[in-house]
Specification:
By secondary structure, this protein is an alpha/beta fold. The protein is 43% helix and 20% strand. The chain binds adenosine-5'-diphosphate-glucose (ADQ).
């Protein structure tokens, strides 16, 4: 069974030192609970920073801490005071955090922060590889470690690496502002699986990788040089039972009782978050102020409890926020409170679980209005806690949780009028409606809780590599030498070579890839070798192939096998009837799509129609190809036609045309003792399947294939052919 290594900025255990005494306190965070429930794992190990600067520790203490933590399956990565400042407060929370939450004006671009970030990701890598074995599953967490997947990949070739981002991934227009944007994307692409809370974030990531690195994706899978990266949404849940059952404990009951003595019959609005500018605390206070101003009838009948956990106090923006929040609270209380009524109660500290859940229990309304939030667990925790009495959730539409909690009253956090009227709506909502809304949300979040989230992610990670069965192995120098020897020793040799993507690189202009002089010379050289027959097997039409290569003593297969020109017969022939009535029916549809999709065009071949979208803007192309495929699949169902997706093309052709049949025809009368086939896309799979068992089949690029071997690109194909020719 595999070993799971979790890598996150912080360990679930915090180490502190008072005088000479080292103590350990565990945070029972959602992640720790989630991972405890993942079964089928032999051993779990957590790697992260233990929360104390190494400057405060002696070497002996560091050793002791390492030993002690290891007993609890944790491994510390020690960071110095300077590193914490530049890496954690600097790059993580001064650069990435604000930018990823769309606060571009707060974003600091400091080279020394970036240098520290790179160094510390490397440090995490060094520790992780020490503990990884060949079956390890490695799960990296969050924006602090975005370079780690690639660093690990350089050292660990076979292990499965997953990455989950707990914050939003911003749109391309925001992400592109980062000077280190390409490095960060490449860092993430070292993983096999990339998880985001909601599909919008995954979509933003895919759009950035496409626009900045030129990687396209197919249904969320990106093909990166030599491996595949699956990108998907895994909305994090909470430990539902823990919150649903919390009020049964005596401690929580006592807390609730104490709170009720203060709140009495007033309606209670709870506002619980880390004190962070992304959480929209100021905006919600302003909205509450407006509510009080507009609705004097509710004075003395409502109160708001603001529970704010101190966070990143070393970053300037946070200190300013605290000052502003406290000033506004004073202003509201100064303007509206009376001797026996305080409209806002404010707690600036972290409180134990029992108190948090007591606040959820007494809260009639949870006012959660982040300006941006990856998910927002408080919203889910509030709903889970509402087992006895109902309550109303007012939730920002900018929180990832909003897509799952659709029965909440959703608000635009920048619109204080909207929030103020939502507060009124919540106060006046009939109890039956509250109950019904809460019940629906509870059903959803209890079904997809934090364990299901972790389980799903792990399952997806494990499944990814099991697909590797169909991935051909990279051809190495040993195999190349043997191929050359077999080629030389054989009497009759047959080479089936695809053209685009195999002998020449793809180009955005399909007309611009006519063979170079060197390529023509190479093919001609191979064709002149005694007993050697070269066959170009292409999807191109016969006129183009004839123009480019017709003068060489080789065989040509055009239009994916519709036309064959054998070396011996020297003329083109086909077994298909020239009548292709279906084209007339489909041409108007293709024309309609072409008109609505700038830069796309239709190519008509004798036996097929091709819609090209190489130059179309990526997101438009995604939508249009999907629409067109659906339309065509419906229409071609009864016509024995197939719709095939190639590299930036959709091709419609009769199902009985394929490269395999054409290759079989050429192979039929020959007794070759050396056969090799090379190709790069889905149409070449038919070619590979048609080859005799002993043949050498080579897939160009990555992806599943039934070929035996794989090469990275056109360069390697040409160098292999050069070797055979010389
Ligand atoms: P956070 O930004 O920390 O998490 P959130 O998801 O709301 O935001 O989690 C906060 C947690 O802290 C909750 O479990 C809550 O109970 C607890 N908490 C809040 N106030 C507290 C207080 N005063 N005392 C004690 N505990 C308190 C990041 C992302 C989120 C994403 C999570 C998980 O920013 O968008 O939902 O990770 O992926």
């Amino acid at each position: 069974m595999p070993k799971l290594i979790i890598v996150s900025n912080r360990l679930p255990i915090t180490v502190s030192k008072v005088g000479n005494k080292i103590s350990y306190s565990s945070s029972s965070g959602g992640l720790a609970t989630a991972l405890a429930s993942v079964d089928n794992i032999e051993e779990k190990l957590w790697i992260g920073w233990p929360g104390i600067a190494e400057d405060d520790l002696t070497n002996q203490e560091k050793k002791e801490i390492t030993k002690e933590l290891l007993k609890q399956n944790c491994v510390p990565v020690f960071l110095s005071q300077k590193q914490i400042k530049e890496f954690y407060l600097g790059f993580c929370n001064g650069t990435l955090w604000p930018l990823f939450h769309y606060f571009s004006l707060y974003t600091e671009y400091e080279d020394r922060y970036w240098q520290a970030y790179k160094k510390i990701n490397q440090q995490f890598c060094n520790v992780t590889i020490k503990y990884a074995n060949k079956d390890s599953l490695i799960w990296v967490h969050d924006y602090h470690l975005m370079l780690l997947p690639q660093e690990l990949r350089k050292k660990l070739k076979e292990q499965k690496i997953g990455f989950f981002l707990h914050v939003p991934f911003p749109s391309f227009e925001i992400f592109r502002l980062l000077p280190y944007r390409k490095e960060l994307l490449n860092g993430l692409l070292g993983a096999d699986l990339l998880g985001f809370h909601v599909y919008d974030y995954a979509r933003h990531f895919l759009s950035s990788t496409s626009r900045l690195l030129g990687y396209e994706h197919k249904l969320g899978t990106i093909l990166v040089k030599d491996h595949k990266v699956k990108v998907d949404a895994f909305p994090i849940g909470i430990d539902y039972e823990k919150f649903a059952n919390a009020s049964k404990s005596k401690l929580v009951k006592n807390e609730i009782k104490a709170l009720r003595a203060i709140t009495k019959k007033q309606k209670v609005i709870v506002s619980i978050d880390r004190l962070d500018y992304t959480k929209g605390i100021l905006q919600r206070l302003k909205a509450y102020q407006m509510f009080l101003q507009k609705n004097p009838q509710y004075h003395k009948k409502i109160m708001m409890i603001i529970l704010a956990v101190p966070s990143r106090t070393g970053v300037n923006a946070y200190a300013d926020l605290r000052k502003n929040v406290e000033q506004l609270i004073s202003r509201i209380n100064g303007a509206y409170s009376s001797v026996n009524w305080t409209p806002v109660h404010y707690l600036f500290r972290s409180v134990p679980f029992e108190q948090v859940t007591a606040f959820y229990s007494v809260g009639d309304i949870a006012l959660i209005t982040p300006l941006r939030d990856g998910m927002n667990l408080v919203a889910k925790e509030f709903i889970a806690s509402k087992q006895k009495s109902p309550g109303v959730l007012i939730l920002s539409e900018m929180a990832g949780a909003a897509s799952e909690l659709s029965e909440a009253i959703t608000v635009n956090p920048n619109d204080k009028v909207d929030i103020a009227s939502a507060i009124k709506q919540a106060i006046e909502m009939p109890s039956a409606e509250q109950k019904s809304r809460v019940k629906h949300m509870q059903k959803r979040i209890s079904q997809y809780d934090v364990s299901s989230w972790a389980y799903d992610f792990m399952r997806a990670l494990k499944e990814i590599k099991s697909n590797k069965k169909n991935v051909p192995v990279m051809i190495g120098p040993k195999e190349i030498n043997k191929t050359k020897k077999d080629f030389q020793d054989a009497k009759n040799k047959l080479l089936f070579l695809d053209y685009d993507g195999t002998l020449v690189e793809f180009s955005s202009n399909p007309g611009a890839v006519s063979p170079s002089k060197d390529l023509v010379n190479l093919i001609s050289k191979l064709a002149k070798i005694k007993g050697c027959e070269a066959v170009i097997v292409s999807g191109r039409d016969k006129y183009t192939l004839e123009k480019w290569l017709g003068h060489l003593p080789i065989s040509l297969i055009a239009e994916h096998g519709a036309w064959i020109k054998s070396k011996s017969k020297k003329r083109w022939s086909t077994e298909l009837t020239k009548k292709q009535d279906w084209k007339k029916a489909l041409q108007p549809i293709l024309a309609y799509f072409t008109n609505r999709t700038p830069n796309s065009f239709v190519e008509e071949k004798e036996f097929s129609l091709v819609w090209h979208y190489r130059k179309v803007e990526k997101s438009l192309a995604d939508v249009r190809t999907q629409e067109l495929k659906e339309e065509l699949n419906y229409l071609t169902n009864t016509l024995n036609l197939g719709v095939y997706e190639g590299s930036k093309i959709l091709e419609i052709k009769p199902t009985n045309i394929n490269k395999g049949d054409a290759v079989r025809k050429l192979l039929k009368d020959k007794s070759s003792d050396f056969v090799m086939g090379i190709g790069d896309d889905y149409t070449d799979e038919d070619l590979f399947l048609a080859l005799p068992k002993k043949a050498i089949s080579i897939k160009v690029g990555i992806g599943n294939s039934c070929a035996k071997y794989r090469v990275r690109g056109v360069d390697q194909v040409l160098s292999l052919l050069e070797k055979l020719a010389n």
